[in-house]
């Protein structure tokens, strides 16, 4: 049953992205056991302090001069921007006008997604055919603008789903048994999570974003594929990885620790997006996202709890998409029970899907449920960056927010 529920949500997630991306393109294209225990406890305390307390993250240019001075809000309330929105002065100023008027104080910006890197870099693999598509031509202007508006910038970096590096380097991809590059039902290819060359490459993109001045790194697609038959997947690097009985969740945990060391060495915040349904599952459903394990290395956890993505009858709710308050509250209560000390900052639904129109009413209901559970921060997702009702839905900006 859990497998069916998980597959249902993963497919709904893909459908939601495709449904909003069409309209969005029109808009955007303008030691020992004791020492281990102490280490884990220290990391948890570090994460709690880093995620909940306001911090200042200065960045420096090549000459060592401070260029930005981002102050992390006590409670991050953000919206998602595509790289094309972020790179367009006109588009971002339109959305920053809304941020200036409401309690919003952060933006999530695509740096890498589906294998595409959206800025010019000196990373060798990113400079190979079709990998880089420059949507943010002037990152300094972007970050200066966000700094001036007192907005906390978050760099979103999608990890293992990749349609371009896999073509340039098929040896780095997940394969079919016959040696051809594997793809899921939507024809997306995936980097092999067992291959540490992929870790290094993603780490280079993370370090590039940190060099630019982003004070928070948010990973996405930190998992094995869910949209296809696991039995058809062959991992070329698995034999050389380590233990023969290594679980997918162990591989993902090792990878996130590897990236986390880079992020925390730069005193930046480390966050991750996960499937919302994970909180009601005991295992990892084969994708490597076992809740407690995947949460451990991160300062902030952002479950994608979009009401439209829950199956009919989930949590005893006839139609979760039509009951945003109820489904959000039940889902987040699961997170609260299983991860009582973790900073949870959920992704909420700011798009319409499956014949149910979302307006200010539905958004306010989701935020109300989030706060009643005890979480003050949130992120709003609309793949096309269409946010027509935010001013109506959100509280006005005050000195405190």
Question: Could you write a compact summary of the structure shown?
Answer:
This protein has 401 residues and is of the alpha/beta class. It has a single domain (2-393), classed as TIM Barrel (Alpha-Beta Barrel).
List low-pLDDT spans. 1-49
CATH 4th-level superfamily:
Glycosidases
Topology, number of strands: 12
Could you tell me the radius of gyration in angstroms? 20 Å
Q: How far is the first residue's CA from the last residue's CA?
A: 42 Å
Average pLDDT, rounded to a whole number, is: 85
What is the count of structural domains? 1
CATH class, anyone? Alpha Beta
How much strand content do the residues show? 5-15%
Count of helices? 13
The name of the CATH topology is: TIM Barrel
CATH architecture: Alpha-Beta Barrel
Describe the 3D structure:
This protein has helices at residues 2-28, 33-52, 83-87, 89-101, 139-148, 165-168, 196-212, 238-241, 248-265, 291-295, 324-338, 360-373, 390-393, and strands at residues 56-60, 66-71, 77-81, 106-113, 116-117, 152-158, 216-220, 269-275, 300-304, 343-344, 347-349, 378-381. The strands form two sheets. Strands 3, 4, 5, 6, 7, 8, 9, 10, 11 and 12 form a ten-stranded mixed β-sheet that branches. Strands 1-2 form a two-stranded antiparallel sheet. The chain is of the alpha/beta class. It has a single domain (2-393), classed as Glycosidases (TIM Barrel, Alpha-Beta Barrel). The chain is built from 13 helices and twelve strands. Helix 7 (196-212) runs parallel beside helix 9 (248-265) and helix 11 (324-338) runs parallel beside helix 12 (360-373).
